[in-house]
Amino acid sequence: MQRRSETGQGAPRRDRREGSRGERPTRRKICHFCHDHVREIDYKDDKRLKRYISDRGKIEHRRTTGTCATHHRHLSDALKQERYIQLLPYTPEHMRGM
């Protein structure tokens, strides 16, 4: 049986590795906590934790940040604890004035 692309009918098939628009495949993201051998995520380390919050004040997804499942659970607990103690606001600054 011949493929459509071989017979001249339809569009030629692409490899799955190419990407949607011929772009290079994205590099796999690494967990920064695993890379730095962090045993415990400290809620007081606000400089590190601010990286994992979006501009809308939400916790970023694992696939966006590249953290592993174990560290993402600890990260979300630390962020929630930091918000509760009010070291980190629940809402972003540009939305507080409304």
Overview of this structure, please?
The structure is a single chain. The model has no long low-confidence stretch (mean pLDDT 82). This protein has helices spanning 4-7, 32-35, 46-49, 62-65, 69-84, 93-96. The N and C termini lie far apart (65 Å). The chain has one domain: 30s Ribosomal Protein S18, CATH 4.10.640.10. With 98 residues, it is mostly helical. It has 6 helices and no strands. The longest helix has 16 residues, at 69-84.
Number of helices: 6
| Gap between N and C termini | 65 Å
Q: Please bin the fraction of helical residues.
A: 25-40%
Radius of gyration: 21 Å
CATH A-level architecture: Irregular
Strand-residue fraction? under 5%
- How many domains make up the coordinates? 1
The CATH superfamily bears the name: Ribosomal protein S18
Structural class: mainly alpha
Tell me, rounded to a whole number, the average pLDDT.
Answer: 82
Q: How is the main sheet built?
A: none
CATH class: Few Secondary Structures
**What sequence of helices (H) and strands (E) makes up the elements?**
HHHHHH
Fill in the CATH topology: 30s Ribosomal Protein S18
| Spans where pLDDT lies below 50 across 5 or more residues | none
Strand elements, count: 0
Outline, from the CA principal axes?
Answer: elongated
